[in-house]
Amino acid sequence: MTTQFVNKRAIDTEELFQIINNSDGIYESTLLKMLQCNRISLESRLKTLEKNKMITKQKLGKYFFYTNHFDSKNLSLLDSQANIIQKLVDYAMFTETIQIITKDNNYKEVYLSAYATGKINFKTNEQLKQIANVRYNQLISKEDMNWYLEFLKNILTKFPVKISNITNKLDSHYHTNSLDAVEILSIPNIEYIPILEAKLDDFSYKKIAGNTYYIRDDILLYIESENRICYFDKIQNRQYELKRISSIMDFFYVLAKNSKSKNTFYFSSDTIELNTAHHLYIKSQQNKKKFNTVQLKKNKQKAQS
Hints:
Layout: H1 13-23, E1 26-27, H2 28-35, H3 39-51, E2 56-60, E3 62-66, H4 73-90, E4 93-102, E5 108-116, H5 118-124, H6 126-138, H7 142-153, E6 156-165, E7 182-187, H8 193-197, E8 200-201, E9 215-216, E10 220-223, E11 228-236, E12 239-245, H9 248-258, E13 266-268, H10 271-277, H11 279-290, H12 293-304
Helix pairs in contact: 2-4, 5-6, 6-9, 7-9
């Protein structure tokens, strides 16, 4: 990762503890990226949890935390998943809640309640507006065009995201078992792409229930070596072309065109609902003003002059 998006989101101590408890070991640096929080505040919360014997701190190259036990294999996997969250923030998407879920094979998946403000992006950023207009005109189906318009005209778009990893080409049993969230899969490099492409299916004739092999063809890929998110664009029956997502307008264009999880999206024009989802980011801004000692000193000097 190059630029880290931190000091943007306040810390919810309960959320922090649940992430550590469910992680079976997570780097402090991973928590910083995942929670997009202030480093000093994170260190303070971690010290309090450690002092109260709720978590344990150890070091394997870097400091990590756990509750009852840890599995070292999860440390790097969760760090890669945190990079995806950072990429979403780079696209101007936000996280209302963050959870870690344990799969049957003890690997970890990150679940997000994510959201975006399409209307604000469209109205305040001319470059994104131009991209959105181009993408809208590239959509063929009226239904897809209308769905994309919902994103552009509403101040709040909420949706669930599931983040997973595969790290071993020789032991890849990854498959789709649900369409209940937008799915982003982290892979180390492009060498994994042919393996995944061979397993793609649109599930038009196959049932999700009981599937142990096929992968949904609307899956998004995070290629860790290149720090980019891509998608499979179907060009012919069972033939695909890998394309890059470069902006939030590209992201929702791809969802409008391909996503099989559209029924999980929630659109709203209610500012109160946006502020409720955005409360940890709002609180972070309030904390910056409250604890900005330089500005407080200037205000005091101005008042005394």
